[in-house]
Design a protein that fits this description.
Helix content: 40-55%
Low-confidence stretches: none
Mean pLDDT: 89
Oligomer: single chain
Shape: globular
Number of helices: 4
Order of helices and strands: HHEEEEHH
Radius of gyration: 14 Å
Largest sheet: 4 strands, antiparallel
Strand order of the largest sheet: 1-2-3-4
């Protein structure tokens, strides 16, 4: 593990999101797009769906969703806004739900 990777994993935002941090590090390697020394984190407040919660956010240019179930947050990162939108478009469901999530992605941009 490089010093850069250790630094990212130790940042306060990623303290309880280690899987998300590792995904971002992987995207850095794959895309050549790196987190700057100081970056902005935007996040939409969690929405509750029964016993689950869902959150969507952006770390610099990387987007993520988080699902809270069974008392654990699970995260999925996306290399950019388009990849995040593609994820929601590919999900089965109603148009209203899709519009809801795509609108939230736009709020993060």
């Amino acid at each position: 593990m490089t010093t850069r990777e250790e630094r990212i994993l130790s940042l306060p935002f990623f303290q309880d999101k280690q899987l998300l941090a590792k995904q971002v590090i992987q995207f850095e390697k794959e895309t050549g797009v790196y987190l700057p020394n100081q970056f902005e984190v935007k996040q939409i407040p969690p929405y509750e769906f029964g016993e689950r919660k869902a959150v969507i956010g952006r770390v610099h240019t990387f987007y993520f969703i988080g699902i809270y179930k069974q008392e654990v947050w699970q995260y999925q990162a996306f290399a950019n806004e388009m990849k995040c939108k593609e994820f929601f478009i590919a999900l089965p469901g109603e148009d209203k739900e899709l519009a809801f999530w795509l609108n939230n992605i736009e709020l993060l941009a």
